[in-house]
Specification:
Largest sheet: 4 strands, antiparallel
Strand content: 5-15%
Distance between the termini: 47 Å
Helix content: 25-40%
Bound molecules: cobalamin
Oligomer: single chain
Length: 258
């Protein structure tokens, strides 16, 4: 697994079973799932790669769904050769697994007030992916811990989406940038003020636990950064491709009118 991801751990499926997310991918879960191998894929780049940044840092690198799934599927193939009678299914993001929770249980970090996993080495700038298997593995099953609760993310969120109850998805600016159709005047104003065409990093950028976050060593992320998107630019292989051109062009046009 060390070749697949620089940070990984294992939690038992039983611990997350009650919080599974309803989605199409749920049908791929192995019957009798017992363990979840959770992997973190750090994505922070050197500051010099963020010149003229107009999208969230997670979207600057090659689409993480592809990168994480390629790597995790390679691991699944190897595991299947070692344990042919067992099932291994890889997921990343589009997953029934509540990934932040699973990562905390696997001992990979703590849950931030901003609801994100914060790791010691890479801060919260990691993607999460996992392999669910019916093989019984030694599980960490750590106690879920919270961040230092300084409240900076809550205070800095321009949409007041963060509270002790969690993140209000209907308010979160990252979700607004993904919305289809016509935005409300309030939503447009927020987007214009923040100047981000896709996603939002404010709650991560102000987090003191991210101060010394290490840069990624993942080749696929280092090789083709695209920090700035413009009208008509290619969407292929990027994390925002799934949302389609209409939404991206609408967001870009909002920033032209500032
Ligand atoms: C829906 C979703 C969103 C929504 C809603 C986010 C939200 N916070 O609710 C929107 C579109 C807004 C969003 C935005 C972002 N997202 Co998102 N998102 C998801 C997705 C697909 C599902 C999350 C979910 O609904 N989980 C269900 C809930 C119930 O799970 P949970 O929060 O763990 O639930 C438990 C908690 O409620 C827990 N609990 C809550 N508080 C506490 C506190 C304590 C102390 C304890 C013990 C327990 C606890 O009890 C529940 C029971 O299980 C996940 C992928 C996945 N499959 O998990 C990615 C994911 C969380 N997103 C990710 C990312 C990168 C982002 C953005 C940073 C992208 C960006 N830059 O714009 C932003 C961050 C915004 C933010 N601060 O949350 C990453 C996070 C990586 C990390 N380091 O944590 C994930 C894991 C995707 C991935 N594979 O990497 N996202």
């Amino acid at each position: 697994m060390d070749e697949i991801a620089p940070l990984w751990g294992i939690c038992s499926f039983d611990k997350i079973k009650s919080g599974l997310i309803e989605c199409r991918a749920k049908s791929r879960l192995p019957e009798n799932a017992k363990s979840v191998i959770v992997a973190c894929f750090p994505y922070l780049l050197d500051k010099s790669e963020y010149k003229n940044l107009n999208i969230s840092k997670y979207a600057v690198v090659t689409d993480y769904h592809e990168v994480a799934l390629n790597r995790l599927n390679t691991a699944c193939e190897k595991l299947k050769m070692l344990y042919p009678e067992h099932e291994f299914a890889a997921f990343a993001d589009n997953s029934p697994v509540p990934e932040v929770r699973a990562a905390c249980l696997a001992g990979l970090g703590v849950r931030g007030l901003n609801s994100l996993l914060i790791t010691e080495k890479y801060g919260s700038f990691v993607f999460i992916g996992e392999i669910v298997t019916d093989l019984s593995l030694d599980c960490v099953d750590a106690d879920e811990k919270s961040c230092i609760m300084c409240g900076k993310c809550k205070k800095s969120c321009p949409a007041s989406a963060i509270s002790e109850k969690g993140v209000d998805q209907s308010k979160c600016l990252s979700a607004i940038t993904q919305k289809k159709g016509v935005l409300s005047a309030e939503e447009e104003k927020l987007m214009k003020e923040c100047g981000c065409v896709w996603g939002c990093d404010i709650c991560q950028d102000v987090c003191p636990m991210n101060k010394n976050a290490a840069i990624t060593e993942i080749e696929e992320f280092l090789c083709a950064p695209a920090p700035h998107i413009t009208s008509g630019c290619g969407l292929e292989g990027r994390a925002y491709e799934w949302r389609g051109r209409k939404v991206i062009e609408r967001n870009i046009s909002l920033h032209k009118n500032i």
